[in-house]
Amino acid sequence: MKICYEVQKDDYDSAGRVSSQIKKTLKQMGFGPQMIKRVAVSSYESEINLIIHSLGGTLCLEVDDEGIITLACDDVGPGIPNLDLAMQPGYSTASKKAREFGFGAGMGLVNMKRMSSAFDIASSGEGTHIRMVFHD
Amino acid sequence: MKLAQIKAELQAEAVQMNDPHILEQDFKHVFASDLMSDALAMIHEGEHVLFLTGLANVQTLRTAEMLDIPVIIYVRNKQPDAKMMEMADELGISIFNTHLTMFEACGILYGMGLRP
């Protein structure tokens, strides 16, 4: 099963809608609350990042036959100039507007890595690609 | 600690409450922050967690939704707008507000035995 959602740049009003949908889908599929929370938090952080940092992108949920969940977050730029810094807790380049919304704590990528069983990130000027796998 | 007792100690008002039974629910933990990613790093089971914040916007509701937190308390009498009330209703999240500051509210809750 694979479902992809588009997330637009600066679409603050919709922020969280995709993650809410992903959470509902996982609940309907019978996943436990702890697993759903790990995926929902990672999805929400990804969605927020797409809105506040990217030029737009997609968030895809995939569940394989063995129940292993994969979240893929892909955008079309502008890329993260320094990944090591971006992965550092507390480091943030969020705009004033993003901070007004309660984001920009510099914990987004850190939370995503912490919540997932496997976390891969690659970034260039053409886009950032994050893949998170979740299993018990 | 029952929510009814917490509400009384914080002199809080119910702004949005679908089910009054929530007042009988026990809460053990409080997370107080205006930074949503700090809240999202929480590991506690959401149903026993109160989310205390001074930021009254839709993202506080979404954050509570992702963490399965059933109650948000806004400090300094922050009022949710109509859109937030509607969303809280849909998500089954109860909203309270108190005129106390974040510091005062946290001090009272800690004194009552609630913990991070």
TrEMBL record, chain A:
This is Anti-sigma regulatory factor. It comes from Candidatus Fimiplasma intestinipullorum.
UniProtKB/TrEMBL annotation, chain B:
It comes from the Bacteria. SUPFAM superfamilies: HprK N-terminal domain-like. The lineage of its organism: Bacteria, Bacillati, Bacillota, Clostridia, Eubacteriales. InterPro entries: Ser_kin/Pase_Hpr-like_N_sf. This is DRTGG domain-containing protein. It comes from Candidatus Fimiplasma intestinipullorum.
